[in-house]
Write a structure and sequence with these properties.
5-stranded parallel sheet, about 45% helix, alpha/beta, Rossmann fold
């Protein structure tokens, strides 16, 4: 097989809106082509039964996620992966692994993330109740993505997903190559 599907790696901090935007993007692409899958970060962790969140474990999970994405891509499937994975090792691995790759960073200010904190993740990390939270006690490496979307002020996921799809079309990035 030499028809690789596009891997769209959507990363950002917890609560940035990456899962919501990814689901919207999935729905938009699904209208055009049938061979698209969405891999959510939490869902993937459930599949591999990983409950560790330290930096090393996060990188290991991201590398496993990338292997899954690559396997699907090699079969001509477009893969949308939603994940925190904000580490240089992951960026480098992805760029070396995928034949057809688009990295999208969903940026969101920490103040806004704390306001949106539905799971009390940031609140608990800041108070010392929990640890291993990226952006609080685990430093992350700012990405150098193909596309950066600021999701700090508005939460219109459909508009953001359309921005990604428009980027793909404007740059003539084929879904299958």
């Amino acid at each position: 097989m030499n028809h690789y599907g596009l891997v769209i790696w959507i990363n950002g901090l917890a609560g940035s809106g990456k899962s919501t935007i990814s689901k919207e993007l999935y729905n938009l692409i699904k209208k055009e082509i049938p061979n698209v899958v969405y891999l959510d970060g939490d869902g993937f962790r459930d599949i591999i039964s990983c409950d560790k969140h330290d930096r090393s474990s996060r990188i290991q999970v991201a590398i496993l996620r990338a292997k899954m994405c690559n396997l699907l891509s090699q079969q001509g499937i477009v893969v949308i992966a939603s994940t925190i994975s904000l580490f240089q090792e992951v960026y480098q691995n992805n760029r070396n692994t995928f034949k057809h790759y688009l990295e999208v960073y969903i940026q969101c200010d920490m103040e806004e993330l704390i306001k949106r904190d539905q799971k009390n993740l940031y609140t608990d990390a800041l108070s010392g109740k929990i640890k291993d939270v990226v952006g609080i006690d685990i430093a992350f490496d700012p990405p150098n993505p193909h596309l950066k979307i600021d999701n700090s002020e508005t939460n219109n996921a459909n508009l953001k997903a359309n921005t990604i799809l428009q980027y793909i079309k404007n740059n003539k990035i084929p879904y299958i190559k």
